Amino acid sequence: MPEFFHVLTPSDAWQRLRSHYRPLPRPETVPTAAALDRVLAADLIAPHDLPQFPRSTVDGYAVRARDTFGASPGLPAFLDVVGEVPMGAAATVTIRTGQAAIVHTGGMLPEGADAVVMVEHTQKADEGSIEVLAPVAVGENVIQVGEDVRQGDRLLAAGHHLRPQDIGGLLALGITTVAVAQPPRVGILSTGDEVIPPDQTPGPGQVRDINSYTLAALTRRAGGEPVLFGILPDRRDALEAGVRRAFAECDIVVLSAGSSVSYRDMSVEVIAGLGQPGILAHGISIRPGKPTIVAVAGGKPVFGLPGNPVSAMVLFELFVTPAIRLALGADPQATVRPQVQARLARQVNSAAGREDYIPVRLEERNGELWAVPVFGKSNLIYTLVRAEGVVRIPLDSLGLEQGATVTVTLYE
Amino acid sequence: MPEFFHVLTPSDAWQRLRSHYRPLPRPETVPTAAALDRVLAADLIAPHDLPQFPRSTVDGYAVRARDTFGASPGLPAFLDVVGEVPMGAAATVTIRTGQAAIVHTGGMLPEGADAVVMVEHTQKADEGSIEVLAPVAVGENVIQVGEDVRQGDRLLAAGHHLRPQDIGGLLALGITTVAVAQPPRVGILSTGDEVIPPDQTPGPGQVRDINSYTLAALTRRAGGEPVLFGILPDRRDALEAGVRRAFAECDIVVLSAGSSVSYRDMSVEVIAGLGQPGILAHGISIRPGKPTIVAVAGGKPVFGLPGNPVSAMVLFELFVTPAIRLALGADPQATVRPQVQARLARQVNSAAGREDYIPVRLEERNGELWAVPVFGKSNLIYTLVRAEGVVRIPLDSLGLEQGATVTVTLYE
């Protein structure tokens, strides 16, 4: 093993990465209507009150509340109907004592009125007047100016991930463009003399590239822009040239390395040569995925992931996804993934000082949800295809008993 | 109210919709590498075994297992090293009794060999031979032909939502294009004389369109293609023309209707005139969102959602999202949304026979997660912007006590 070999726990490795990687998100301006799932690059402040005029929340009559006090079916309040508030225009009528105006849901409250009586609580007295059968309080059935948002309120903070309702909320205030973080470019390299592109037919001893495409898809999920640099042969000069090109062109580099020891050593040397502080972890106390390299050079994270697909995916989600979120200015750990509770269908062993990630599928048995470990060597991509989620066994656990309740993080 | 007014429970309304809406997904072929989050239109079958040759999972020596039986550091097995398996090529050497060949992780097992000894369990005896210090069983450290997938296996079923690992798994088998369901076109119409486009400045009594954009974003999330038909004025002829155009051009129509009674009645008439079977539910026993129309005409679902943003969003997720998933051929109810358990920060009342949806934000208090209801009239879009999720109160419940444990479905 090279001299700088040091195995860290996942959380120590992340802390070391975090302390050396402090990216500044790069803002770009996009139409708000097209900003779903983007991350805000700056706080947004309300440019005006919402609503900008008092609005009725019901169909009925705008009134002065005190005119209705004590009204009941036996003793209704009589009010003169002096007009109707048109939709989408100012209420021109003014309500004085003893008067009312027809108003529709969403319509503007006319001057002088301070409440709305629902039409269901009224009946026509004659052509120009109504009986009010129940009292309303001041402000009843009215949304006040600024009740939704006040001018100057902070609407959403930098780093916020835009959801459907946020898009609507911003457009309601006329915020038709927003500054969001540019997706970081994530350079992805696969390696191995045995690896060929998926559109080619493997000869004896050859296999098609899996990781470039799985990791590109995970990059998109995390909010990054994958840039594929193809398959590098197992030669130091080719590896170095490929990694340096990705390092120059991208914000984050992910090398899905060949699995042989000689190849891993070569990756370590190439990554170590990229710059300071260099390799932060060489080996993570995790299964699968121990032979992982975490490095930062010249302010950019560089990851050497194991070549087998299960390890590569587990490690990507633990390190690269949060790094992409950091680059976006978002909370790195807030990646909400659906989880369910289930009972473990069979005993799983672990070792103290090692985190284990067990792919599982879910089965309902007598109304109970069971997590069935999908065993398979971590070289098998279909272990993950057959899995519906993953169970984590913590560092200090020696394993889990059959029937134990576990949290399954779902693969969506 | 029009004669066909009938209020249904959310589940009865869905069942009625389901019984009249049996869409056939329309397939289109796309590159597998670009098919993330698409829904498969047909089952996929493995065209060949994976792997196609027996592979070593470690760095070491390919051997005949029986030659190592009983080997130990005190009594090692001596084997002649007769060659090295090159990566990415056929193993040309044949292993006979007493022989071994160098093999790297992922390399092909040579003929005659049936196991691999890890390099760590060997030491060099002299230039051309090794000592094996521990026995291996037949098949040890080897992935057999077809161990990942067998030719003819069903890999993934029609209706499956493609995840990152699925993309990798398909490309591993040379499946470089896939038939996926075309996104259904979802026509979205907003209405109201008071509603103006977001890039305009509201005059007195006017408000900007929120729902078109929130519902378009929700449509994308569900896998549909939103088609915006703009804002319709509150006139029967304009409404009818707009709805008919959307109905002709789209697979699903969503009308976010003005909230006044006269306007709702007009929507009902227009929707009822589109075709058979027509309106299936007019009114859903839910809060917010009661004045909702669910219809099917000529095989297409048509929804009239309440105009206020909170209702529109709750109802969209309950009815339109599953309808879009049906159109994709996916399981309509399998929309996995992250959920967390939390304690309710204050009492919430409901009524028997009505489902309530309460927007909440989450707060950690002394290590416990609390769901704090975001109260606000359902006309307020920022009720949803401030919310981190929603709590459902079932039909038969009269409400929930303060401190009750609730499931919060998170807004991602």
Computed over alpha carbons, the radius of gyration of chain A is: 31 Å
Biggest chain contact: A-B, 94 and 95 residues
Query: Oligomeric state of the chains?
Result: homodimer
The first-to-last residue Cα distance of chain A is 38 Å
Largest beta-sheet details of chain A: 6 strands, mixed
Strand order of the largest sheet of chain A: 7-4-6-5-9-8
Shape annotation of chain A = elongated
User: Which consecutive residue ranges of chain A, at least 5 long each, have pLDDT under 50?
Assistant: none
Which structural class best describes the helix and strand composition of chain A?
alpha/beta
Could you say what the CATH topology of the largest domain in chain A is called? Answer: Molybdenum Cofactor Biosythetic Enzyme, Chain A
Put simply, the count of helices of chain A is 7
Overall number of structural domains of chain A = 4
Mean pLDDT of chain A equals: 93
Kindly state the number of beta strands of chain A.
28
Q: Into which percent range does the helicity of residues of chain A fall?
A: 10-25%
CATH superfamily of the largest domain in chain A: MoaB/Mog-like domain
Per CATH, the architecture of the largest domain in chain A is 3-Layer(aba) Sandwich
Task: Kindly list the characteristics that best describe this protein.
alpha/beta, 6-stranded mixed sheet, 412 residues, 4 domains, Molybdopterin biosynthesis moeA protein, domain 3, Molybdopterin biosynthesis moea protein, domain 2, homodimer, Molybdenum Cofactor Biosythetic Enzyme, Chain A
